[in-house]
Amino acid sequence: MTQSFASLSFPRPTEASLADGFGAVADLLDRHDLAGALSRFDRERRTFESWSALVYLRFAQDTTSEDAKQDRDYADRLTPKATAHEVTLKKRFLSEQLHDATSTIVGPHVLALWKSDVTTFDSRIETALGEEARLTSEYTALLASARIEIDGHTVNLSGLAPWMEHPDRTIRHAAEQARWAFFAEHGEELDTLYGRLVELRTDMARTLGFETYTPLGYRRLRRVDYSPEDVARFREEVATHVTPLVTSLLEQRRKEMGRSTLHYWDESFVDPRGNPKPAGDYDLLIERAQTMFDRMSGDLGPFFKSMISGGYVDLKNRDGKAGGGFCTAFPDVGMPFIFANFNGTHGDINVFTHEMGHAYQNWRSRDLPTIDELWPTMEAAEIDSMGLEFLTWPHMELMVEDGAADRFRRMHLIGSLSFLPYGVCVDHFQHEVYANPTMTAQERHETWLRLERHYLPWRDYGDLSYPAHGGRWQAQGHIYRNPFYYIDYTLALCCAMQLWLQSRRDEPAAMKAYEGLCAQGGSAPFTGLIARAGLVSPFASGVLADVVQEAADFLENGPR
């Protein structure tokens, strides 16, 4: 029986308890008990990760809570201490005397991850890591503090979404004006915050012997099977094959709407009849979701039931709650947790199925032997999430308002295609920033504008002066909190769309491939996982062009 979330409690670690726990691992090594040392090492890491995940989740649930802030700050300071112990022990496991025997027990992939990990930490950057965590939390709290007046309501940034997609263009425009007024008001603070993060990360990289932060950033994301050069080629594939298609789709929409110009506030209004809305309120969506997962093959249904009954979801938007959505997990209990902000738009369905995909993967791989295998690296993890978005398509009649399922599916596909140029723009921006860390704030804004014109040439901000002058990137939290993460969504989307195409031809086979991919967790690197699932690497020549062409055919001709 699943332990309820409300009852979760993990021991609060201290510097002394960390030294004792990881010291016990060293003692076992000194006694030549390698298997025992590896088992204790894994157990110590799971216990710390469970406590840490709960602390950061509690802060996200209420960024105004002083207790949650203090716990978060404590975790920010303690995490580098835990990392120091981990790296010291990983170096021992990787030593010439223990390398081969360790590989026999944990496997070559986990060993490859550890080899990358030990290059990302040194006691000399311990204080800087704590400061980095503090600054990213400051960004989260700043955005969560937004109180925006719109149409007689006071909402946060997540709650603004229904007005940003309103059928009335004037209301959409007003919503975007209100949104960007908040960023303009805090623009200098956001520039300063990011500048400090870039400087801090660059200093850490140089301390560790890297010329720039980029190679360190890739290693922190545990990318062991592809390089920045591979990513750069993929970005240009998007510019070549996807940007023209999205430009054409938006021009078609402009004509359908009878507009002389398609402005930024029109981009989110995909369907001229109005973006399809969820079928009902929160309770109805949860009930319908249970029916949907029960109808799908495998164990999605029982797993979702355990998530709900155990209280492992927090999906309602409220004041003080951090924006966005994510999935975290507690390895000591083998259960994930879904966090999101429902706001009454189609995005509720997208974020729910997306985070449910992450949760299902983590649950399916919960019994893999090491903590390093419970999650795959980020780009592989996003296949699990985006893949479920597409694989739930046949059941959308349950989740959206009556008669709107086909419109929802079309909108989801258009949104996915439109995301690709934006996603690679975010990535390219970060590569330029960290290659030139002394950029001024103004130069960063100019860099964003230049790249936006390359990847999203249709974008017209009209009278929204703040994003028109290059401030759009400041609303993308990954740029502050998770440098270089964002390209993962685009790489994964190329793979998830392959699953979608397979499901149109053979739905049971696609579901089987998906379930198998989730069960693999992080037992192999990105390219190895997708090869096992029968998917083609996004870095392979022509694969993106082929996927995009089939999607374009679907939009033009409908399902065949």
From TrEMBL:
Cofactor binding annotation: Binds 1 zinc ion.
Matching InterPro entries: Pept_M3A_M3B (IPR045090), Pept_M3A_M3B_dom (IPR001567), Pept_M3B_oligopep-rel (IPR011976)
Cofactor: Zn(2+)
Assigned keywords, A-Z: Hydrolase, Metal-binding, Metalloprotease, Protease, Zinc
MF GO annotations: metal ion binding; metalloendopeptidase activity
GO biological process: peptide metabolic process; proteolysis
Residue ranges of every copy of the Peptidase M3A/M3B catalytic domain listed in the record: 164-272, 307-544
Family: Belongs to the peptidase M3 family.
Name the UniProt record assigns to this protein: Peptidase M3
Upper classification of the organism: Bacteria, Pseudomonadati, Pseudomonadota, Alphaproteobacteria, Acetobacterales
